[in-house]
Design a protein that fits this description.
By secondary structure, the chain is an alpha+beta fold. The protein folds into three domains: 124 residues, Glutaredoxin (3-Layer(aba) Sandwich); 310 residues, Rossmann fold, CATH 3.40.50; 103 residues. Helices cover 39% and strands 21% of the residues. It contains 14 helices and 24 strands. It has a seven-stranded mixed β-sheet with strand order 10-7-11-12-22-21-19. The chain has a four-stranded mixed β-sheet with strand order 2-1-5-6, with helices on both faces. Strands 15-16-17 form a three-stranded antiparallel β-sheet. It is globular, with a radius of gyration of 33 Å.
Amino acid sequence: MRNWYSASALIVLAVLFLGLTMLSGTALKGFRIDLTEHRLYTLSDGTRNLLANLDEPITLHFFFSEDTSGDFPMVRNFARRVQELLDEMAARSGGNLQVRRIDPRPFSEEEDQAARFGLEAVPLARGTDSLYMGIAGTNLIDGLEVIPFLSPAREEFLEYDLARMIYVLSLPDRPRVGILTKLPLDGGFDFRTGQRQPAWAVYDQISQLFDVELLEPDIDVLPAPLDVLVLIHPDEFSEELDYAVDQFMLGGGRVLAFIDPFSETDPVTAADDPTAALTADRSSYMPPSFAAWGLEMEPDRFVADLGLALQVNVEPGRPTRHPGIIGIDRRHLAADDVVTGDLETINVSSAGAFSLSADSALVFEPLLTSSDRAGLLDADRLRFLGDPSELVAEATPTGERYVIAARISGEADTAFPDRNGDDHLASGLVNAIVVADADLLADRFWVQRQQFFGSTILNPFADNGSFAINAIDHLIGNADLISVRSRATSARPFDLVNDLRREAERNLRATEQRLEGELAETERRLTELQQARGDTDLSVLTPEQEAEIDRFMSQRLEIRQQLRQVRRDLDRDIEALGNRLKIINIALVPALVTLFALWLAWRRHRALKEAKR
């Protein structure tokens, strides 16, 4: 009877287990818990708000070559990461985001569709196969946004790239950008040569992506509607235009401002009067709203950086470091910001330095900074500069890293409190990017033009153009999209093992260099012995030469043994690390769990004994 009760209890428990499993599969459908260290599978608040506010269906076509990617496990892992993120976005969209995964097999209709969308086919080394891994987004009308190829190197910006694509597809019209500048971005006419100059490369690129309107500096009002206002080396505004810019920003408008303490591309440099060109004011005008909100920049001082100074040719064949022309590399770019995270180098010239006053309520996030070997010099020093090397002696590093570009955001009050009216805004949320240099947009600082069979080919040698495009592209988004930042990657390398490998490689290089030095010294010694011989029969070795060769051969064998020992030590260290991890996983953790269970049993047993007393 006791056995029957036990069997019945087991059957009942099994039925309950199956029932609870089926019930949980239905009741907890869509329920997720993200236990990863950096919450890889948790969307940011900005992305969730963006998806929740979609008003019409959007379809994302994810093209990925399943068969041809079989030999590339890293690519397949990244594709799985993309799919998981797309699925999470679709689940959060309330049904307004549809995701289609398509495998464009060779010579299939799906491959033709990928080509029509403009996706990139990456050829594989093994033959004629190509790898597709891109996304094409469409909406109900004729909107189309394409990521030609999803690079694993941009995984930390994957959420932003997808969120931006969805946001642009949700807009009814192409984003409108107004550019207010006195610089000849669209080319203009050069009276010295009598020819029309080509438009700046950055202006061509902006015009291809956005609906651009060039604004005259003497206007009093801003045209409506504008998604982004770009100020490039602005001249002094009228009071009405100052007020219009203030209200535009407080009303949610985005501003990208290039404010320069000494613009070398100012049209005044091409004036007929050389004296006027040398004495004219070439600093930019900062709208009063920026100063009222606490943004500060010395208008007549530029950053002289000895650590990032670039070489210029003052005379043919005599390159010289110019502390006023600096190349900002990855070490001095904001790595976790979408605007600068994937850039390599940005060249600036006679750039200023921004700071935020202590009483400002805004958030100040640096994007470009100088090195700690920089200082500030008077901009007038550049007017009559003959040899840039003179600045090297004059520049005094302060140890401070000066902010050349920054993002400012937060709640701000109007700079015109005396104004009134029904449409007057007394305060609002500000989002802007400010850059203390306008020269970086000129072609000569970042791109070369080459003629190829009648077409102009642009060959960038710096990322200045990409920086400007990224800044405009990011500011176009609403507050939710702007809040999306870079995320951690799903790659989890064995840092300790990599450190061991790097240390071993350093040892190997040192030993190999020593071997090469010994070889060169032996060859030099053999040559000296050969030249010292008086006979003409060079095919016969002298005893001294034979001894030198024997010495080198023995040393080479010894050094090779040392190389092998370094590799064996590396393998032994890695194997020892693996053994320690195995011991921890197989023995230590179960032992700790067992000891904890025994401790709990002992406490329970002791409590029962005390209760019986």
